[in-house]
Amino acid sequence: MSAEGDKTPRNSDIAVNDSRNDPRNGKKSSPLESTSQSDSETTQILRRGLSGKLQSRQFPKTICPSEIPRALSKSDLAPIGLSDWRQLMPQVRSMLFDMRAKGEVEILQKGQVISTSTSLDDVHGPIRARLVPKEGV
């Protein structure tokens, strides 16, 4: 949205014409379902970005998940078949929840660590993440 409370979409809020989501072709797929090579490349790019951002913040500082895909340029996105960083947000959030399941990160919402029993599907709205504190911190 262009301003708080304003419901007028910006150009970046409008969905890109994408034949994968065209109701006429009978299927709806994720833009990340292109090829396994692209998926693998995308995962590697995001994993490196997440690791770097998380390592750069000392506990208790957090990252916003959007920092990782927002750091990618359009030329970084084009080879993996994407046109906008927002298309990567579901994958970044999923990766963070996977990292949480492995005990690597904590996920926060409204400044509070969310329970490990809370699933990705149960979390709506902004989240932040940080590395799990090391012993003695």
Tell me roughly what share of residues is in helical segments.
25-40%
The main pleated sheet reads as: 3 strands, antiparallel
The percent range for strand residues is 5-15%
Low-confidence stretches: 1-35
Kindly report the spatial arrangement of strands forming the biggest sheet.
Answer: 2-1-3
Number of strands: 3
* Overall SS class: alpha+beta
CA-atom Rg in angstroms: 17 Å
Order of helices and strands: HHHHEEE
The mean pLDDT is: 79
Shape: globular
Number of helices: 4
Report the span from N to C terminus: 40 Å
Task: Explain what the structure shows.
With 137 residues, this protein is of the alpha+beta class. Helices cover 31% and strands 8% of the residues. A hairpin with a 2-residue loop joins strand 1 (105-109) and strand 2. The chain is globular.
Topology:
Elements: H1 36-56, H2 67-70, H3 74-77, H4 89-101, E1 105-109, E2 112-113, E3 128-131
Antiparallel strand pairs: 1-2, 1-3
In short:
With about 140 residues, the protein is α+β, with helices and mostly antiparallel strands. It is built from four helices and three strands, in the order ααααβββ. The chain has a three-stranded antiparallel sheet, with helices on one face.
